[in-house]
């Protein structure tokens, strides 16, 4: 991890501590100890397990797209991809660093950059598509709850939906409209050319080769639809595991009469809210969104704050720390090279 990324990681930890401290300002030690003492740790363990399943299933999607008769990726290398993605997402605005970090992880595993780009783009489109589908389902389930409790947030939610939809359309254009990608390459080299003619020519040749590989792989994926269908099914289950996490946390902290579908639907809506906050990890917006949406399910403010913090630790900080660990593990291909 670069020095800049390390600094951002530390800043996000500091910001998280400040947000947690601010959230706890009205919670006494006695209230905290009482809530944790009466917690059902079995349900809380299931929340952690759901996050682990979420990450493992993303590794399954990576293997689905990478593995074929000519190329394989080990399970260890496949698991590195979603973990370093969590790190990249967590330290960059709008989770923009997740894709480049995955690209690095696949390249380190010996996957051609053009093919890796095509795989990650298709994987991202499927992921965003499943989020949009789940949002529409969640809106039907949670619409009445939204209009009765947090009507003012509906505009924010629809903005998040439009952002995800726009991203899907833009990526599909890049994958299946070669002229658009070629235009981006030409524009980039025109910007670089006044600075360095030699570098511009070198980068143009490299980019044109990688873009050609990218479109070739994209075309193969379009014709071979079975991996895409498998990835869609796995991604749907993956997101279901993620959406279950607040449900397990609420049950673990003693919430009664919790509607499973409603809680999952509200978690889908939180994902939409987070996508609009430019701060890495949606810091601030995620905590506020969780507190507003799930305030009705817990009897005390102390339990709500604890639930919010547990949710953030499991869904955000757990992934970032796991990403740092994974980033420093050598890939299978590197180990083979060393052994030779």
TrEMBL record:
The protein's name in its UniProt record: Phosphatidylglycerol lysyltransferase
Location(s), subcellular: Cell membrane
Enzyme Commission code(s) on record: 2.3.2.3
Transmembrane domains' residue ranges: 7-24, 44-66, 124-146, 152-177, 228-249, 261-279, 316-333
Membrane topology, record value: Multi-pass membrane protein
Purpose: Catalyzes the transfer of a lysyl group from L-lysyl-tRNA(Lys) to membrane-bound phosphatidylglycerol (PG), which produces lysylphosphatidylglycerol (LPG), a major component of the bacterial membrane with a positive net charge. LPG synthesis contributes to bacterial virulence as it is involved in the resistance mechanism against cationic antimicrobial peptides (CAMP) produces by the host's immune system (defensins, cathelicidins) and by the competing microorganisms.
A Pfam family assignment: LPG_synthase_TM
Gene: mprF
Entry GO terms, CC: plasma membrane
Catalysed reactions, semicolon-separated: L-lysyl-tRNA(Lys) + a 1,2-diacyl-sn-glycero-3-phospho-(1'-sn-glycerol) = a 1,2-diacyl-sn-glycero-3-phospho-1'-(3'-O-L-lysyl)-sn-glycerol + tRNA(Lys)
Family according to the record: Belongs to the LPG synthase family.
MF GO annotations: phosphatidylglycerol lysyltransferase activity
